[in-house]
Amino acid sequence: MKQRTILFLIADTGAGHRSAANAIHNAIKLISQQEQEAWQAQQVNQHTDSETTGATSKATNSLPEPTNYRVEIVDVFEEYSRFPLREAVKLYGPTIRYNPKLFGDVFHLSNQEGTVKAVQTLATPLILNGLMRLITSVQPDIIVSIHPLLNHVTVHALQELGLKIPFLTVVTDLVTVHYTWFAEGADAYIVPTEEAKRLYLQRGLDPKRLHMLGMPIDPKFTLPTEEKEELRKRFNLQNDLPTVLLVGGGDGAGGLQAAVKAISQARLPVQLMVVTGRNRRLYAHLQRTRSNFHVQAKIFGFVHNMPELMRAADIIVTKAGPGTICEALSCDLPIILSGYVPGQEEGNVEFVLHNDLGVLALDPRTLVNELRKLIKPGSEILQRRLANARNISRARASFDIAQCILSYLPAPETGSIWQSRQWQRQQQRLSGRLRSSIRIRRQGVRVRRPVISKTLLRNPVMRRFARTRDISENSTTLDTSPNERAVKRFRRIRR
Questions:
Q1: pTM metric for this prediction
Q2: Strand order in the sheet with 167-170
Q3: Alpha-helical segments (H) within 275-379
Q4: How many Cα atoms occupy the beta-carbon half-sphere of 387 within 13 Å?
Q5: Do residues 259 and 477 touch, judged by C-beta distance below 8 A?
Q6: Which of 71, 349, 375, 427 lies at a C-alpha separation of 20 to 30 Å from 228?
Q7: DSSP string covering 143-197, please?
Q8: pLDDT tens digits, residue range 274-327?
């Protein structure tokens, strides 16, 4: 059985990029399993036919032997970049929690060609050799990037290696697509929405390389689960109370604590499921104070059973993460956005408002009022948003993206480029520095890098960040009507 290697490049800034890579990986595994089952069934049928007829005839439309897919998912910044780039990337989580406005300013300032080129000039020397070392050690047949900051340097690395390995980019932002997502030189660009497609075409890139396939979410969201009543019984919830799921993304941002407090103080007739992600401090705080809540609440940390949690719920309250939004749509959940990361997630808010999938509620009073509208018996708003969610959902996007990636693999009868004479010649041309770094890596020699995270947090500027409020505590009340006025008003407030 022939094997093909697929290398996914990610960075654990939040949980979205790894979740998208895992979703595509799981879809590839299911596709591979189906191919192998179909081939094995064909072999059994042919063997049965040969015994019956006494002849060993080969069917003209027989399936080829399936390919075995080896998948590697690598956090390039964590494992292969150098100081200080490696440490700088780790500031994403603390920044969106303590000073999201700063992140938004950086996002907008960097979202242009000149700034991107300047950052590349500074950052490329800190990651290029490591990325080349990764590629030559894994020896992939195809490379897929699921992080915007890795696209330009991957194109550069492949040029340095002189290898024609298919390189694809999977965009995981719904609307606000940063300039770095579309690095010229990739073989294909997979985008989730019409808005992202429009931005790609505005860049003047080849439209034949564009595929609009949706946002990759775990294939588990396409599988049937137990009925809502059974799921609630499993989570020790009451069947006669509306269930609200509160999610803050992988880093537990988006004003979870403020949302729980507001719902509790309003004494709404609901029960809560709260997912804090990697935010252990928030998880511990909510567990410690849960006995003081005026509503029933179940507290979870980082979870792997989100389809069950969502299908047990009636409403989701979340920050505007693209993955969570698309997962909620696949589970027919109306959405209340309790926060967003400025810059990166602004377009996601417009996506929800424009398509009448939910509302934006940045302050506690608006959040409580919107929940009251949705839990009202026979709510027309609830039914309308459920219908809109069903119309726009693309739950099988991961399978479409997986099939697209597999279509760029070399043909089964084609040998691997890593066993070709071309690669043997290219190895001789590698710089001495790269060959030395590969040799050091194989010998297991590790260079100790200074750790600066704690030092940075002692800095007075970083301490000031820790004293700033979460954006969800903003007291501004927005018009939450699900139409174009809501979108326009959101844009004015954002500015």
A1: 0.82
A2: 68-75, 3-10, 142-145, 167-170, 188-191, 210-212
A3: 280-289, 306-312, 322-330, 346-354, 364-375
A4: 6
A5: no
A6: 349
A7: EEE-SGGGHHHHHHHHHHHT----EEEE---SS---GGG--TT-SEEEESSHHHH
A8: 999 888 889 999 999 998 999 999 999 988 899 999 999 999 999 898 999 999
